[in-house]
Specification:
Elements (H helix, E strand, L loop, with lengths): L21 E14 L2 E14 L3 E5 L6 H8 L7 E6 L2 E4 L9 H7 E4 L11 H10 L5 H14 L15 H13 L5 E5 L7 H18 L2 E5 L11 E6 L2 E7 L1 H4 L2
Parallel strand pairs: 3-8, 3-9, 6-7, 7-8
Antiparallel strand pairs: 1-2, 1-4, 4-5, 9-10
Helix pairs in contact: 3-4, 3-5, 4-5
Amino acid sequence: MSALAGPDAASAPRPVAPSPEVVMEVRGASKIYLSGPNAVAALSDMTLALNAGELTGIVGPSGSGKTTFLMIAGLLEPPSTGVVHFRGRPIADPQTRLNSLRDFRRTHVGFIFQKANLIPFLTAVENVQIALEINDVRPKLARERARELLAQFGLGHREDNYPTQLSGGEQQRVSIARALANDPVLLLADEPTAALDGTRGRQVMEVFRALADERRVAVGVVTHDPRWSDIFDRIVEMSDGRMVSERAGGVAGHL
């Protein structure tokens, strides 16, 4: 103990770190798929929270349940068992009709999938714009917002091109812009950099980092790429449908 410390220093209470602000939490979730006479467990008793202002990496081999977790956390699939909570309140369980949550998903959740899934007969800017117009944003404002997002991803010169006129990496960047169009509080990405080179991939991950830091978005990213471990707050490893480890990422590890 330092000589400068008073006699009660050892017994003085230590400051308590604030509890994380949980945006979406999957509790005790399992997902069972029927394959002929067999039942396949894609997810088993999974509990994981995605927190505001935190960038979480989800890693593991193919078939480990990573994408299934994203689908359940993003309210695209119901769990076979367990409950999904949004900001502390239950929002989905095995009996939930997820079509009833369609408007909620559009407003609160952004998705980025392995494939861009762009609408082929719409230009790049229209693919982003439509995500805003569905949420009743006026066409003029929607187009301005879409153009800003495309420019942010280095696609300002490609906004009037159709998907077939874009490279795979460019298509994926359009899909990322579309996912961010409505300022979601939860962003879920499944291998978002798989079609990008190292430079573009790093740019995308830095956008996710900024969303977590500056807008307190909860971001969950499934990836096989070890290059991004330094940018995550937390890394969750999955295997055989279960979470097998959780550790601090490079960002949290250097705080």
